[in-house]
Every structure is written in C-alpha cells, then in structure tokens.
C-alpha cells in the first residue's frame, strides 16, 4: 500500500482522534477520496466540517442533505460550491431547516431555485429570501404572498423599495403595517397616514420610533389608546 493510500485510511479511521479528523475534513486541499471517507463519520463535527468544505464533492453534499443532524444538512445546503441542482434537491426534501437554509442564500440563488421557493409550501424559505434578496422584482413578488409573515419580512428588508413600503403600509394585516411603521425610510405622507391607523399597535410603532419628532408626538397626545397617548405625552414632557 502506498503512502497516500495509507494516509487516506489513517485519516478516515475512527481510531484517529476526532480533532485530527475534524481538521482534515475542513481542508480545502484534501483529496476527494479522503473527503468522501468522512461522509459517515460518527462525529457530527467532522461531517459538519465536511459539509462546509468548498472542496466537498457534489455527490457527497447531496448525501449529506439526508444527514441525521440538522447542522450538517444546513452546511451542505449552504456550501459555497453548491449549485442549482443541490439547492433544488434541498427544497424537494420537505425539510424546514433546508428550506430556511436555501432561502438565506438570497442573491446567490439561481432564478429557477427562487421560483421554486416562491411556490414552496413551507414559508420559511420565502421569509429568509425576503431578508436576503436585493432584487426589487423578487421583493415585489414576495409582497403578494398569501402568508402575512412573508410580507412582514419584506417590509423588514433594507432593500424594500419605498414604493413597495407604501403598498405594505395598507396591508390588511396589522402585523405587516406595524413593521412598516417602524421603518426609517417611510415618506412623511405615509407616516401621517399611519398616525391614523385603526390599530393602536401600528400607531404605537409610529410614535415609538419617532419620539424626537414633536409634530408626530403632538398628533398623538390625545390618542384613544393609553399606551400610545402615554408615550407621546412622555416624549413631549407632558403629564400622563
């Protein structure tokens, strides 16, 4: 047996200390067959390091999508060398953790993968995509999602266009309007509109995030809600 073969057998052996195997599994210059040998290592950290290694063979990454531990599956889905095929495989697994992991990749994703996320039955990937994508087209598409939790993540995005914030300021769900009300990028006419929102939670978010704006606080000093009115009066130095 040659020295290289002996080295491969030695490194992949569970008799070798876990620290040695962990270090070897993360090496980007490791031979493919050495990396393959770590795919079923009993130590979770070894498999996690392997899944995060950009040199990990694609077929091994695909296999690691089925690993028993979610962190290994997560690293495999987010591996920088993973492409469209692996991302689509991750979405087809009906695994919420994998869907979340793929959605977090945002602008790294192929359009076919984005389209699959947009119609995926689990919302988690779309929520993460809303936070990580900088594409106005994708954010507009996500703003039409039937799940309000996806729409509120769109409102949380720093890349959300101002015109889209205007639309979301009139969303049927108060939770979405609450997030919009907290945005520092809202045009003044939208802020003024939200001052009269039917939800006290929305009005509270308006004043809470603009306590230094005297005009806004004065507009809410007689608000019917105790919390909103109290915050506005305290900000102005008035008795509650």
Automatic annotation (TrEMBL):
SUPFAM superfamilies: ARM repeat. Pfam families: LRV (PF01816). Residues 1-22 are annotated as: Disordered. This is HEAT repeat domain-containing protein. It comes from Cellulomonas chitinilytica.
